[in-house]
Every structure is written in structure tokens, then in C-alpha cells.
Amino acid sequence: MHQHLKDESLEKQAEMNCAAIPMRVVGPVKITSAEVTGDIPLPLATLESPLWPSTHRGARVCTQAGGIHATIIDERMTRSVLVEADSAAILHQVYQDLQQRKEHLQTIISEGSRFAKLLAINGQIVGSLLYLRFELLTGDAAGHNMVTLASDHMLDWILSHYPALRYVSISGNFCTDKKVSAVNGILGRGKNVVAEIVIPRALCERKLRTTPAKIVDLNIKKNLIGSIVAGSLRSANAHFANMLLGFYLATGQDAANIIEGSQGFVHAELRADDLYFSVTLPNIIIGAVGSGKTLDFVRENLRLLGCVEAQMAGNHGRRLAIIAASAVLCGELSLLAAQTNQGELMRSHLKLERIKQR
Question: Which of 49, 65, 201, 346 could form a disulfide with 273 if both were Cys (CB 3.0 to 4.6 A apart)?
Fold first, then answer.
């Protein structure tokens, strides 16, 4: 009874309490891809107010340059279960057998979800422990709960079919969920997106107050070499997390996913006198349905982005990932341009933030 009253109290608090984070819509930015074509607004919720004008500047430059082209390289959501046995030999035999039973496992998954589709099973054996990493398609959902439910059902069958196995955990950290790792970038988790653009030298000089050569040089010395010096793991960028978090909060995502989502790379090079600039985000975990998507401001932002139309259902998650990557490119380009000029970054922060505090 006491627990029931406590749960009711927590539910009422959840209904009443709301953390307000400032939000603005910047851009639009022109995007061309299989999933998104047109001038797309970029809603960003953040406490770092200079992020809005900086990303807006990047969006204007990218639009004037002809637009961002974005490509989804891969998509999948993962959950790793952990079981144990008396020996590695037993585990190896089980793992080999499971690779032949994917069709049967899919029938088990389908009993609990009509959207989840099993793509692959990856395993790691450590002593008497077996880490099984299930990889699934999850439709328009980011898919955390969907893959956990599917894994739970598969795990029940595995433990009953292989009595030599013993349960350890529904999640063995080989997923990897909301933690920095190498496995997500290598095997995939979320949507792997590359956004790229070519910016003419004259536009770069006029609107970004720098040159293509300076941006390329800074990317090498700051993002690439600097990240190596810092010991960064599969990450070479200036501030992917800023734009990604702002977009996540504005569109009702699980914000903790910026941990793996912000692991990504900037690649820049000269194309004749022009600037080729790209961002690669291997782990954008994002969805258009599920928890957080019923909030009024989230629904409005999803509508603004074209992610609620019934005729496009099934493509909304991919569309959101494309727009998120494009927002990251806009903010990354603008910041790197600013950092090629001594003092520009701090001057803009002082101008934008201190005026608000007066």
C-alpha cells in the first residue's frame, strides 16, 4: 500500500514538473538526400545561447553553397545479453549453433513486435562468459525498449534450449548503451550518417571570414592531431555534442545518447580552391515515435520537420537522422571558421551572453 501511494505521488510530480530549456529554430538549411529534400528548419534547445547564431550562420552558408548532401550508410539498434557456462568450449558450440538459427529467433521476436527485424548476432567469449550482441532494425523508433524486449524473448528461448547456459544479465555492456566504446562505430548502433558539402572559396571568405585552407589546416591540427594527443576514442571533432544535444532535446530524444552519438569525425580538404567539408556520425540514436514524443513542443517540432505525416511513416527516423547530421555540420563548420581567427570565439560569446545578463 505504501509503495502504491509512493508510485502515485511520483506520477503526479511527473505530470506537474517540467524543466524549461530555451529553444529556438534556426536556419533553414538546404538539404538533399534520399530521405530529405528542401529547406529545413533546425530546432535547437540549449542553455548555450551562442549555439543558435553560430549554427544559423553555418546553415546560411551551406544553403548559399547549394545545400548539404547527406547519406545514411547503415542503421541498427543493439542489445547484448550475457550468459555463462562451465567452459568456453560449451559457449563456442552454442554461439556457432545460434548463427544457424536466425530465422527461428526472428519468429520469436515477431511474437512481441511487428517492427523489430533481426539483422545479425555478434558474440565475444571471455573465459566462461558469452556476450551476445543482437542487432535489429526498429522502424521509426530509436529502439531501446524494442531491442530489449526482443532480446528478453530470445534470451528466454536460448536458456531453455541450451540448459548448460546460465543467466547473468539482460545487458552485458557489449551493446554499448550510453557509454564511450569502439564497438558501436565498428559494428554499428543507431544510424550511421555522412553529411557533406563543397563551399566556394569566395563564399567562405565573405561569410565565414576565413579561407578553405585555414579550415583544412585547423581540422588537421585541432580535430585530428589534438584528439590523438587527448587519447580520444573514435572521435575527431570540435563540438558535435552541442548541436546533437540541442536537436535531441528539441525532438524528444533520450539525451544521454549524445555520449556515443557525438563520437564522430570531421573530414575537410581542398577541392581546387574550394572547401570540401563533411561530418561523419556513426552512432546517431534517434526516433520519431516512443517516449518523449507526445509532449506538445516535441510534436510541433516533429511536425515542423515533416516527421508526423502518416504517408511517410517508416521513414521518419531516417529523416530525423539526416536533419540531425546536417545541424551538426552547420555548427561544426561555423565554430571551426571562428577558431581560425584569434579572439573571434571569445568576442562572440561575450557579446551574446553578457548582454543577456545585464
Answer: 201
Q: Which residues are catalytic?
A: 48, 254, 349
Q: Which amino acid is at 269?
A: E
Q: Which CATH architecture has domain 19-74+184-357?
A: Alpha-Beta Complex (3.90)
Give the fold, CATH level 3, of 76-169.
Answer: Alpha-Beta Plaits (3.30.70)
Dump the DSSP string for 205-219: HHHHSS-HHHHHHHI
pTM score:
0.92
Residues whose CB is less than 8 angstroms from the CB of residue 145 and which lie 6 or more positions away in sequence, other chains included = 290, 291
Phi and psi of 231, rounded to 5°?
Answer: 80, 30
Distance between CA atoms of 28 and 30, rounded to whole angstroms?
7
Query: Quick one: which of 138, 166, 195 has its CA closest to 329?
Result: 195
List, for residues 80-124, the tens digit of each pLDDT value.
999 999 999 999 999 999 999 999 999 999 998 889 999 999 999
Residues 26, 42 contacting (CB under 8 angstroms)? yes
Residues in the chain, pLDDT under 70: 1-16, 310-313, 343-346, 348-358
